[in-house]
Design brief:
The structure is a single chain. With 177 residues, this protein is α/β, with parallel strands linked by helices. It is built from six helices and seven strands, in the order βααβββαβααββα. The chain is elongated. The structure holds iron/sulfur cluster (SF4). The site of iron/sulfur cluster has 13 residues, from α1 and α4.
Length: 177
């Protein structure tokens, strides 16, 4: 029997949520026997595949690349999980929202730089006007809050889904939607 396909992606986040995923320690060996990790920063796959069963999304939607990626991932994923507070509430990346993208870039690349201050006009993707949590951009099936979310919570949600159980969804209203 084919194993369910699991993916993880990283938008505007610090990688701490992925570190917490790895903190499930040797239980990842058990999980590896039950799932195929088809796309993730922890595996060497370049293209997000079609028909993924479960995708964990770390980080908020902050730039045009994030926006394109989350829409593509949603269209190719059965169950989308917002992993961690940046994905769930927009958390730390949204601290720039009151100032706007131009002031944010000026602060990072001009005011806080001693050598060759210059706002890059290539390589980095264009910032969106405001940072948004994943559920404000696409439909999210489950949230795993926390900064970072506890490893046990990540493991429990994945194994409950693999066991065809329904994990307790975190109420969207809690986050103002
Ligand atoms: S929720 Fe916390 S640990 Fe996860 S990406 Fe955001 S800042 Fe990092």
């Amino acid at each position: 029997m084919k194993k369910p396909k699991l993916a993880t992606i990283w938008l505007d986040g610090c990688s701490g949520c992925h570190m917490s995923f790895l903190d499930i320690d040797d239980r990842i060996i058990e999980l590896a026997g039950r799932i195929d990790i088809v796309y993730s920063p922890i595996v060497d796959t370049k293209v997000f595949p079609e028909d993924v069963d479960i995708t964990l999304v770390e980080g908020s939607v902050s730039n045009e690349e994030d926006l394109h990626k989350i829409k593509m991932v949603r269209s190719r994923t059965k169950i989308l999980i917002a992993l961690g507070d940046c994905a769930v509430t927009d958390n730390i990346p949204s601290m720039r929202n009151p100032y706007g993208p131009e002031a944010t870039l000026r602060r990072a690349y001009i005011e806080n730089t001693a050598k060759k201050p210059k706002i890059p006009n290539e390589v980095i993707p264009k910032l969106l006007d405001i940072v948004r949590p994943v559920n404000k951009v696409v439909k999210v099936d489950y949230h795993i809050p926390g900064c970072p979310p506890p490893a046990n919570a990540i493991y429990d949600v994945i194994t409950e889904l693999l066991d065809n159980k329904t994990p307790e969804p975190i109420k969207m209203t809690r986050f103002g939607k």
